[in-house]
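Thread: Modeling a multi-component assembly for a lab meeting

Hi all, long-time lurker, first post. My supervisor asked me to bring a structural picture of a complex we are working on to next week's group meeting, and I have zero experience with this. I have the sequence lines for every component (280 residues in total). Could someone generate the structure of the whole assembly? Inputs are pasted exactly as I received them:
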Amino acid sequence: MNIVNFTPLSALIGGMTIGFSIFLFFILNGRMTGVSGIASSFLISKKNRIDNLLFLIGLVLGPIFYSFFTKQKIEILITNSLFLLIIAGLLVGLGTRISGGCTSGHGISGMSRFSLRSIIATVIFMVVGILTVFIKTLYE
Amino acid sequence: MSKIVSLFCGIIFGIGLVISEMINPEKVLGFLNLFDNWDPSLAFVMIGALIVFSPMYHLLKNKEKPIFTESFTHLNNKEINKNLIIGSSLFGAGWGLVGLCPGPAVASLALFNLSSTVFVIAMFVGFYLIKLLDLSTQAR
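Re: Modeling a multi-component assembly
Sure thing. I ran the full set together rather than chain by chain. Output:
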């Protein structure tokens, strides 16, 4: 194992920014942030639909505002085939709803509450994620 | 007021994803590539979010009501069952395939990237299938 591309400071500051957003959503609106929960509720439930939509719009506006004010272009790289993107999207949509949370819901909100459920979920999705990447590298 | 909060929290969350570079799937895959060239940054994002939100949660959890809504939506699902394990595993596999989880996937719509847009559509199809099959697990 080699350590590469490690950016501890921006990771920590970005993480604290996310933690601050979750704190505000909790103390002001009384809700725990989980993006899979917010996105799926927006789609399938009438409860808090406008709030959920506005959160999702904000999530898209965040990077736009960041680029606008810092004059930095955000670059992302996705090299997967269309087929793999569809399979992965379906797995993420199904999996997060079957387990009731994703990286934000279980990984941050749930772990902050010391919820055993969320700790177990986080360990599982990380281990499976690591194994998936490992298996993928065998075929590349 | 809760509507403005929702929008604002989404924006802050999205900015956090950009600062931490978690919006870039390459960065996430670098974290999951534990056995080869490992980028530990994602762990620091989670630590950053946890050190901000966890103490605040424990300090505020017994408050009677949040500031702008009538009550806290408390999550008390403690069940550790096969749904939690299966769901987290499916999510982990999808996450490892492309490097996108729900937060960064939605935020990346800002970049008009065709691949991440396909992923998001598939993810929403996944959410909808859960409703059709009635498999949903209520929040964390």
